[in-house]
Amino acid sequence: MTEFPADRSAYIRSHTWMAAAAMGGAMLVLWLIGNPYVWTGAPAGLAAIVLRGWYLASEELGYVWSIDGSDLVGPGPRRVALRNIEKINTMGSYVQIVTKTGDKHLIKYQADPAATKAAIERAIP
Q: pTM for this one?
């Protein structure tokens, strides 16, 4: 069985990029509405993403996808027959699985998304 666990460093890296975007976005909104304290958007955006990252870490980092026989099995009830996979995309530290019926699944926070994609492609009959 091949497993694809979430990677802590990829999780932190993703949240670092989200924090930078949130900080810039919050400052832009404050500037657009004419707020004289534009700088307060930076710590607000940072705090929001740090809180989100801390709150969700135990859940997100506990997810493990695996190839089990002829299926790709994810957390909860997620099970995708390998023969039904239409397309595999990488986006940052994520691997997106698109099925022939249009369902989409994300394998999040992969240390090496290209290697995850290649392993799944090799398993497809």
A: 0.88
> How many angstroms separate the CA atoms of 2 and 20, rounded?
34
| Spans of all domains in the chain | 2-60, 65-123
The span from the CA of 106 to the CA of 70, in Å, is 18
CATH fold for domain 65-123: OB fold (Dihydrolipoamide Acetyltransferase, E2P) (2.40.50)
Please list the residues that pair with 79 across neighbouring strands: 73
- The closest of 10, 8, 1, 9 to 91, measured between CA atoms, is 10
Q: Which residues of 6-24 are buried (b: 16+ CB within 10 A; e: fewer)?
A: bbeebbeebbeebbeebbe
pLDDT of residue 52: 97
Tens of pLDDT, residues 56-99:
999 999 999 999 999 999 998 999 999 999 999 999 999 999 99
Averaged over 99-114, what is the pLDDT?
Answer: 97
